[in-house]
Amino acid sequence: MINAGGKKYRKKRLNFSPYLYIGPHLILFTIFFLIPTLYGIYISFTNWDLIGNPEFVGFSNYTEILFNKDSTFYEQLRVGLGNTFKFVLFTVPACIIVPLLLAAGLNTKPRGFKFFQVLFYMPTLFSVSAVMIIFSMLFSVSFGPINHYLNVETNWLATQPYAWITLVVVTVWWTIGANLIIYLAALNGVSKDIYEAASIDGANSIQKFFRITLPSIRAQILYTLVITTIAQFNVYGQPLMLTKGGPASSTSVLLMYIQENAFGSGNSIAGIGSAMAVILGLCIMVVSAIQFIFLRQRD
Amino acid sequence: MEKKTVSKFVSIIFISIMALIWVIPLLYTFFSSFKSEADIQSNAFTLLPINWVIDNYQDVLFKNTSAPVAKWFMNSLTISVSHTVLVLVIVSLAGYGYSRMKFKGRNAIFAFLMASMMFPAVVNLIPLYKIIDTLGWVNNFLAAIVPGSAAVFNIFLVRQFMQGIPIDFDESARVDGASDFQIFTKLILPLIKPVLTVVALFTFTGSWNDFLWPTIAFNDIEKMPITPGLQLLQGMYALDIGHALTGALIAILPTFILYLFTQKYFMESLSLSSGVKG
Question: Hey, how many other C-beta atoms are within 10 angstroms of the C-beta on B4?
Answer without folding.
Answer: 12
